[in-house]
Design a protein that fits this description.
This protein is an alpha/beta fold. Helix content is about 40%, strand content about 20%.
Length: about 400
């Protein structure tokens, strides 16, 4: 019976040992000392401290070794057969090497001490060296080495991100220089005339090929205010191109721009405020650290009117609708697309038309691309209409639309 049980047990398989961890590299130290006996003594202390020691007995050997190998710090006698430790330190600094350098001497002088300080020597030690003095200097040098390695590690990690951000900043600056605006007509559904134009930004910067890319860059660079000010300045100039003084201009406003002091301090749009509708985009949520109701109240006092995008897109659109109480509301394009073939969409839009009328708000249907969509939205009672079927964005405001 026992043999059957043994045979039924799975064979014992030895668990493979984990691969040995690679030991961290020991700090590399160059010891420059012409006294062989003293060099062995100091070398033992350095080895006990956890370093790997390379010995050079004169300046020529030390110079050759420094050219071939990278060291974390140097411990050098001042009096050498062919040069001085101070001259070697001067050579190291002239080569751009900023490694910790410890000088030691049996004949300390004010002159060499002064030179050592001027050249940035870490320590200037007098012989004979006690064990405590040497260990203290070595520990300090090793601490500086570890800090330098940590900094280098951080630089290595951050370097790609820094380079990428620099490239993005350069592209954004170029996009700002090449920024221009186009005008898309907004049509009065009842009068069949152009009631307004929406200003849309464009840029000829190839690395940021569309408005979304420019906005992404502005957000990543914390430059929304910079971009917004540029767009508003261009929009102010564009007012002169409008065909009639009664025509309004819709200018997109990123929610973060509600925190831009320039918007409230008589910027370029302020003289034309009665003709301007600031359209709060759903690009980002309304800022939680800003009193949105108070800011929009201030804008209205200046003469601006407010519109919100994407009613019906979900919680974000409804939140803006209730907190801002705009004069104009834009339907989300998902409700406009193929509305003529969807009873559900038609019922939703009809309810929004009724709600906006009850609240004295004007409803804009944007994204109209077919004759059937246009006819359906007119039948449902939308106040204003916008889309490629009526007119595409144009550098010059068009005077005629298809309706």
């Amino acid at each position: 019976m026992r043999s059957a049980v043994v045979r039924a047990l799975p064979p014992v398989v030895a668990t493979p040992a984990p691969p040995p961890r690679e030991a961290p590299a020991r700090p590399q130290v160059l010891l420059i000392e012409d006294d062989a006996l003293l060099a062995r003594s100091i070398g033992r202390e350095l080895a006990y401290a956890g370093t790997e020691v390379t010995h050079a007995g004169d300046g020529a050997t030390a110079t050759a070794v420094l050219r071939k190998k990278r060291f974390d710090f140097v411990l050098s006698d001042i009096n050498l057969p062919d040069t001085t430790g101070v001259d070697l330190l001067r050579l190291v600094r002239a080569s751009g090497l900023d490694l910790p350098y410890i000088l030691m001497t049996g004949n300390p002088t004010l002159e060499t001490a002064t030179e050592a300080v001027e050249l940035g020597a870490l320590f200037y030690l007098s012989k004979p060296l006690t064990g405590d003095k040497l260990r203290g200097a070595v520990e300090r040098a090793m601490t500086m080495t570890e800090q330098a390695r940590t900094r280098q590690s951080h630089v290595s990690i951050l370097a790609p991100a820094v380079v990428e951000r620099a490239k993005l900043a350069s592209s954004f600056e170029s996009a700002l220089e090449k920024l221009r605006i186009v005008f898309q007509p907004i049509v009065d559904a009842r009068k069949r005339t152009i009631a307004a134009y929406e200003v849309l930004m464009r840029s000829d910067e190839a690395s940021l090929p569309n408005p979304g890319a420019v906005l992404d860059a502005a957000e990543r660079l914390d430059a929304i205010h910079v971009l917004g000010r540029r767009v508003r300045a261009l929009a102010a100039r564009g007012i002169e191109a409008l065909p009639s003084p009664d025509v309004m201009l819709f200018v997109n406003l990123h929610p973060a721009e509600l925190g831009d002091p320039e918007l409230f301090a008589g910027g370029p749009l302020a003289p034309h405020a009665r003709r301007i509708v600031l359209e709060l985009t759903e690009r980002a949520a309304l800022p939680s650290d800003t009193d949105v109701a108070e800011r929009t109240r201030q804008l209205r006092e200046m003469g601006f009117r407010i519109a919100i995008d994407d009613l019906g897109a979900g919680y974000a659109g409804l939140t803006a609708f209730t907190s801002v109480e705009p004069e104009f509301v834009k339907l989300d394009m998902s409700l406009v697309r193929d509305i003529d073939a969807s009873i559900t969409k038609q019922r939703l839009v009809r309810s929004m038309v009724d709600l906006c009328r009850d609240l004295s708000m004007r409803l804009i249907a944007e994204g109209i691309e077919t004759r059937s969509e246009l006819a359906c939205l007119c039948d449902l009672g939308c106040d204003l209409l916008q889309g490629y079927y009526l007119g595409k964005p144009n550098p010059v405001p068009t005077a005629v639309v298809t309706i």
